[in-house]
Structures are given as C-alpha cells and as structure tokens.
Amino acid sequence: MTDDKDVLRDVWFGRIPTCFTLYQDEITEREAEPYYLLLPRVSYLTLVTDKVKKHFQKVMRQEDISEIWFEYEGTPLKWHYPIGLLFDLLASSSALPWNITVHFKSFPEKDLLHCPSKDVIEAHFMSCVKEADALKHKSQVINEMQKKDHKQLWMGLQNDRFDQFWAINRKLMEYPAEENGFRYIPFRIYQTTTERPFIQKLFRPVSTDGQLHTLGDLLKEVCPSAVAPEVPMPEVCSWLPTWLLASSAEGSHLPSLWRDWEEDGPRLSQQGAENRRNQSPGTETLFWDQVVASDTENVLCLNSRDHPQIHRMVGLLHQEKSA
Amino acid sequence: MEENEFFGEKTFQHYCAEFIKHSQKIGDGWEWRASKDCSDGYMCKTHFQVKNGTAVSHQGTSAHVQTFLPVEEALDPPLDDLEVTETTTAAEVIKYEYHVLYSCSYQVPVLYFRASFLDGRPLALKDIWEGVHECYKMRLLQGPWDTITQQEHPILGQPFFVLHPCKTSEFMTPVLKNSQKINRNVNYITSWLSMVGPAVGLNLPLSYATAASQDEGNVGGQGKKRSLCSTFPVAKILEPLLHLAMSPLLAPAFIKSAFISDRLDTDLFV
Description:
Chain A is α+β, with helices and mostly antiparallel strands.
C-alpha cells in the first residue's frame, strides 16, 4: 500500500477546476465577478474557500452576510462530503469547470449541517478517521496515538502537506503480518438514485476460504444493483479518469495549464470545449472531461483513499495515456 | 451481513422490538421505521415539550431553553388543550424527535435527535446544549464539539444532533457483565437509553425496567412486579431518581462518571 507512493500522491493532489458565482439574488454594492479556484478532491468545501468568501464579501455589506453555503444546479452542497465525492456524484458528467453558486443567506437548515468554524470540520474529519479505525483495527491504532499525532493528521490535510499527513496515516494503513488485511474494510458507497445517503456495511477483506476480496466482490455483496451486466450504470461515476486527467501535468492535451487555472479559468474552459469539438472520430485521445472506462470492472465513488483496486485502475489508465 | 459476537445488528433489532412492545403497552409512542429498501431501520419517537422560563426572542433567533421539563407523559393533554388552557404560544412548544439507530462500525446503538418549534424552525446546537441536564454539562463544556454534534442521519440524510457512540461500549460492558453474573435478563436498549436519554431530555417511565427484567414466562413474578408500576402517582414522584436506577446494577456514581470529564481520557474526539 504505502509503497505505491505515486498513486498516493496522485490521489492526494487531485484537483477540480471550479468557477464560483454569487447567487443572483444576493444583495451587492457592485457587480461580483466569478472566482476561479482549483479545489483539492480530498478536502472539504468550507476548509478551502476562505478566498472565495473574502472575494464576494468585498462587494457586500456586513448586514447582508450570514453563513456561507454552496449549491450546484439547485442542490445544496454538503460541505462534510469530500469535494471529489461531491463532484463525482453531481457534476462529473458535465463539462468542466465545475460551476458552483455561492449563497450568504437563507441557509437550508433541512439539508445542510452548519459549519460555524474550522473546529467543526476538524471534529468531523477526525470522527471519520476514528470510525474507519474502529472498523480496521478496533480503534487500537488511533487510540494509541498521541493527541499531537491526531493534530498532525488534521494539519496535514488543512495545509495540503502530503508528507506530514502520510507520516501518521501510514500507521492507520498497516496491519499485522499474520493477518491478510484489516478487520473490516471502511467503505461507503454513494449513489444519487437513492434516498439513503450512502451504503455502509461490515465487509471483510478476505473470504472464509482465504481468497482476497475484490472491489467487484464488495459491490456484488452490498450493492448488487450496480453490477447487473446488461444494465448501464448511471449512478456509477467514473471519477477515476476525470480526476487523473485533471491532476496530471503530463499528457500532451492536458493541463500544465491547470497550474494557471486560477488566472486563466475562463480561457481554459473555452479551450476545453473547443478541443472536444475538434476531436476526430475514432481517436483514442482522452480529454479531461470525458468518461473513460478502461476496465470491465465498475469504478465507483468510493470515499476511500487507498483501496487496492483503485490503484490497479490508476495503473491501467497510466498505461493508456502513454501508449 | 456479519453478526458480531457482542452486539450485532440482529440483536439490536431484537431488543428494539421488545422495547417497542412495552412502549405500546404503556402508550409511550416508540415505533419502528424500516428504511426504504427494508434492509435495516430505526426506532423513533416524537414528543412535545413546553419550554419553561424566559421569553422567546421574537425574531425567532435561538431561544433560551431551560433544562427540559417533560410534559407529564401519561397526562399529556392533546395539543389544542395546551394552547387553550395555558398562555404559552406556539413558539414555545418544542417538538423533539428521537431516533435510535445501529452503528455497525462501533456495534452499539446511537441516539439521534432533532428539535424544532411548531412552525418548523429548527433549534440550534446552542439551544440544545443549554437544555442539557446539569450532570452532563461539565463534560460537554470541555469539548462541546465531541459529545453532541450535528451529523447527517445515515438513513434519512438530514441534519440531526447525535450523542457520540464511541464511549458507549465502555459504559455498557459492566452493565451486561453484571447482568450475566446474577442471571438477570437485561434489555440492552432499555439500559442504554435510560442512561443516555436524560442528557437530552428523553426520559423513560419506570415500567420499562420492570418489563425488561421479567423473565419470559415467569407469570408469578410478573404479577408482583406489575403492581409496582400500577401505583402510578408514586412512580411519577420518584421518577427522576428511579430512571437513573433503572439499570439497577448501575450505581448513580457510575453514571455520573461516564459523563463527567475527570473520568474519561482527555482525547475528546469520537
């Protein structure tokens, strides 16, 4: 797991080019320009949008500002879901950039959790990490850590410090040599088609006869409707190709451009649309907003940073790109 | 899915069913709701409480809520009576919903709840904290984000407040061990709810305890225990004390220690 450093880095540094626009009914003193930002897939909206908030608050009066919240095509965005997950669930089949609307009033109490401070995000993040460790190690590893280790995990995420984060996270990703894996795999499956926000069940990494379970086994067990071979899977998001393409600076048709996203957002959006129009039929070229399925296995919206099957998919896509 | 040796989902559902049976007998209002795909479900109850004390701010911003006084449960007047005989306005009656779900990660039950005024305005976390029972306040004040927080309901997907489950098995283990020792049937849900509920205004009538400790088929014993419940007015007076003793093997001191910070380790995250 942790010897797959490249894959871990690719997952960590995944970005989504986003355009934030102020909701038209917000009261402003002058016109608010949209704000462009590259959002980290592994982080949370309210953690990385201070600049967005400041940008729009500059054109508003204090009395017209209350708690910020975000919406995409009418759906309030749950800040407590990782950004990459929100994008995959709601916007991955649309063209980039991701267009998000910013609100400062009429907070939707029935849909969204409040986020009054960074402490709330930290508590939520740590709560997820702890729950995952309860499944992986009966909470032994997380509870044996000191408070400063917990803090380091959080600070690593908050400050986008891969090494700082993984120095602690690698301990949470280990298991004793005599075992074949964790006690249970911490996973959640998100679908837009169900009322239930996610599927989470107990699932062992190894079967009773000693075989390692695959992602396909997991899906068949807990979400059989996603694996019916003859049925197309609209709810299965091929997030993997999209973010990989968006995050890499290598491919020739790809964003070394992304680094300048924040300045060049409008121009790049146009360019992407043009590239798509100019694509000749039958080519294998991968564009950053296209859906690619390179394997017969289903790729899903797993909120997991480290499942072995994801690594395999990443490997396959890397091969395709360099071919 | 996997059945846990200690307290698996099937066991949880069994205890909830037993609990609900008793609730139905005494009209306590608990019911079971299955999830849409019927793979699991939760136990829930709605009740109304009258806010006691200071005035509601008329803008409808967070109201100052005193420590909860349960509306006399068996003496609940229908809601329209309440509005006629008292001068409380609709804004001062608060609707509470309590949901008991199962956490497969921690393999314990978890209490979710939300509160709103009758016009639909939800209570803020701040108001919830202010209404928390005195003996739990110290722990909460040390780490408010860690004991009661706002979370997404895992089945409904809506914001609820939650009492964190990670310490549950710590305080429930002695209850279960002791009950095994003296060969007494204990309904896990009854014991657990009697301990965590009061922190957020949820009280269980005494009769749950006697129902839980009845052996099935012990008809003679039943008769004797029922008479205790039937002296209702007496039970009502003693209720605040007796619901703590409902898990009778738990000394009040233990309950206190489970919720006050000097007993728990300093790691306040779930």
